[in-house]
Amino acid sequence: MVKLVYGNCAGKLFNEGALHDCVPTDDLEQLDFTSKAHAIGDSGSTMNGCVVTLVYENSTEKLMNVCTSSSTNMLSSLLIVFSAFSSACAADLSSEYAHRAVLDPEGQMSLYWSVNWHEESVSFAVEAATTGWVGFGISSGNGKMAGSDVVIGWVKDSQGYLTDRYADSESLPTKDEEKSYFLTGFEESNEKTVLKFTRKFDTCDTRDRKIKQGTTKVVFAYHTQDPTSENDLKMHTFRGSRSILLLNNMEKKEIDETGWENNNSQERHNILLTQKNYVFFQFEASVQPGNEGLVHHFVVYECHGDFNDTHFGAGYDCVSSANMPLRGCYINNMVAAWGIGGEAFYFPPKAGFPIGTSDSPKYYMMEVHYNNPEGVEGRNDSSGVHFHYTSNIRQYDAGTLSVGDASSNFLVIPPKQKSWLSVGFCPKECNQEPMKASTLRDGGIYVFAAFLHTHLQGVAAWTKHYRNGVELPEIARDDNYDFNFQDIQVLQKEVHIKPGDDVVHYCKYQTMDRNDLVVGGLSTSNEMCLDIMFYYPQMKNASSFCNSILYEPISSFIKERFPDVNVSWPNPLPEMNITWTEELATDLRLRMDKAKTIVPICFQVWS
């Protein structure tokens, strides 16, 4: 077993001052990680970024934060604030359906839906700011109208209409003779139209698109006027597309928690941090308005160990600096992950992340990745994440396990490739003993959610599960991966990973738009191949990172093709300025396909 320390972000801590007061409320609370106003771009630079934060749990007098900037990932400071949980009254459709998504930035159209797993069907409601016809469809995976499975409907003279169609081109969709969508309700009022309908996951109609696990790219449109007939539809006056997880098993959660009895907000901070146990059970992003195009994704880590006044000060380059006191946080549990387009995440009723216990971490570190390809300068950012917590302790502590490629520069993808596969292994040896020590009767863990993650070149990702050499049902899959929409998949059925099981994560890439070699790394222009799995019960003294490196194929490729180059660490291939021909790419592909050995990377969490 090879154990490597990975992660070279650097930064220093500085004192942010006392916690803000918080209004006495019930036992259900919200913990805000909000970044201090932070400059995303420096004058004359084109900076993207990554944010890191520490929360000092054992004191209400001091917070420890981190800030840094880099060419691709910049660490910024966060301020932790306590505030009361609040929820707005839901609209009628929000009460009727389990999920809601605003389809366009202007809020002209919204989609509501509920999943019936037993009947394998989905009930939809489309709301549009028009009194004309409304269209909705499921695309072939590219978010374009051509190849989409479409319905168009309207309300006229108090009567609702819905036509099942398919689009072979960017023109009026053809009526589908085999009806698979069924109108269940309609309404037209206040200059809005609502159409309700239902359909099966798999309609067995070759013209229809199956609704599957993972990202679904939907198309939508409307016109300001109703058609005079089913065959006389005028071209849309508004249209768009969006990625959604239609089959995410995230139902609405009813909040039922007991109340606070202490009216002293400062004392309650003391109780929260030192005298009482709590669990996180929900989190969601809070992106500063106007920065939605810059804040791409974040990860929150537990931090163990001690930090002192020498850690206070300015930040460091996240990618290239090797001297950061927070580096150790990267090998601990991730407690949250969010990507652009993601929504609120709820833990299952039986699990949550513990805080306030004697062995829970003193600090949490938040890393936010910014994407700033246009080189925007002088923009400040105060984005963060809200954590909701309760004193009603769950049956199990939750944990996270990152599987896949180690994101080193041994992950390589030649340019001009229509399809390229990367594989990351999580061998059973990484967590064999902690899984045996599990509190579950058969040992191991239950995975209840998965966050699949690549960068710009990724087009699909999936995670396989093996026991005694036999392949079991997949843990998670996304055949339409969208870098600009990343959300956590809540699994329909929790997956039991037992001691001795192997997990293998795959990522599919397309590099037709690249002229240079793509390598693994933290930068948006680099690539990653990870599945961050949320599970319970939390393993003790375990590896929260279970990744691998394919060293042998790269080594043999360089030795045979470029015998004068010494193979070393890091991988010399990215710096060799190779003109990649299809022959070279095919040779490397075959070597990777036939690889027999891996370098496993198991990060030991704090114990």
TrEMBL record:
Quote one Gene Ontology molecular function term.
Answer: copper ion binding
Q: Which UniProt keywords apply?
A: Disulfide bond, Glycoprotein, Membrane, Monooxygenase, Oxidoreductase, Signal
Main location, first listed in the record: membrane
Q: Which GO terms describe its biological process?
A: dopamine catabolic process; norepinephrine biosynthetic process; octopamine biosynthetic process
Subcellular location(s) of the protein? Membrane
Tell me the superkingdom of the source.
Eukaryota
Decide whether keyword Chloroplast is in the record.
no
Q: Which family does it belong to?
A: Belongs to the copper type II ascorbate-dependent monooxygenase family.
The name this protein goes by in its record: DBH-like monooxygenase protein 1
> What is the species of this protein?
Acropora cervicornis
Q: What is the lineage of its organism?
A: Eukaryota, Metazoa, Cnidaria, Anthozoa, Hexacorallia
